[in-house]
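Morning F.,

Quick status update on the modeling queue. The single chain you submitted on Monday has been processed. Sequence for confirmation:
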Amino acid sequence: MYPFFFDPTMIVILPAILIAVYAQYKVKNTFNKYNEIQLSANLTGAEAARKILAFNNLENIEIRKSDGKLSDHYDPKNKTLNLSSDVYNNSSIAAVGVAAHEVGHAIQDKENYRPLSLRASLVPAANIGSSFGLPLAIFGFFIRADFLIMTGFVLFSAAFLFHLVTLPVEFNASNRAISNLKSTDVLTDTEIKGAKKVLKAAAFTYVATTLVALANMLRILLLAGLGDD
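Structure tokens below.
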């Protein structure tokens, strides 16, 4: 019998958490490095985004400045491109790379990219699963209720699926970003290499988040097994 509030499966999640922490460090460090290198074209993130949007016949997309650091995102419901101040006003390789990535999502939306719409449809279930799935399973373990553990597993499965679907969405947006940065001559060949490093570091955070979700799925299964002891 395990002491109350002691979760013996925590050992499973620790490696994934360490990878996630490193991924966050890597993306911030890489962004800060290339945020210090100004573009030869002297375009801000917002100006570069507007140029790429026009290149793809997406002049209807509104570009807004959003609060928070690295809070950049595309909103398919409102058709808005929301760029943080570090990206919106900055003429750096990092800023333009991030802005182009978000435009990549707008292009996905225009082309009805299936994984993007699938991810959007998973949001409600994923929010519930990430909030209640694991706590419910852990609670079920302590009161020896297998039904609660497996209910938690089912709920958390939606969160894991969301993270899994996010991977191709983000990778594809980055590929579109690099392709459009080349096609519009926003970046030179040398600057493109820097933008690739920024987007690669950002992609690593999504991989790390998915690994954490996978580790938590395994934890719940282990809880179910331990609960039978």
